[in-house]
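Table S4 entry, Nucleoside triphosphate pyrophosphatase.
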Amino acid sequence: MLILASSSSSRAKLLQEENIEFKQITFDYDENLNKNILASLYVQNVVLQKEKQFLAAFEKDFLNETVLFADSIVCIGDKILTKAKDKNEAYEMLALQDGKSASILSAFLLVNTQKRVFSLSKTTLYFREFDKNALKDYVENNLFQGKAGCIMHEGFHGQFIKKQIGNSSTALGLDTQTLKAYL
């Protein structure tokens, strides 16, 4: 059985939709890393840090299991967007996306005693201008919380996507097509 080392409800839902049997282990990670690097390296470093922190706490419990670590970030140009800390930061992030594009980088690490698979995927979303009332409703109701770059592909942002390059599952936090190839 796959161990999902993540508290993400989106990742859990993606695994359920793909009929992948898993057990979710929630764990609070310290994701505060240097953002002065390429976005693709940043998201991979976060995944490696998640693995390190998880194994420090649970290695003996999951020694012979297949464990999945994952993370996603949003980047606009060279600017890395993680999770907004408050409404003001959410409004700032969303202003960067309004009528423009944003890329979601999603990395995962699949580990067991026989293999170690690292994957990095990208989905770029091109947006129409956001409706100001919908934007305010999205932020004021705290729907942005827990979302990298405040992007909610399956909700608020979905109505404003005019073009998408890449998989929806990557935009939701986990490239399930690639993952399934290694399970």
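Residues 92 and 152 are 15 Å apart (CA to CA).
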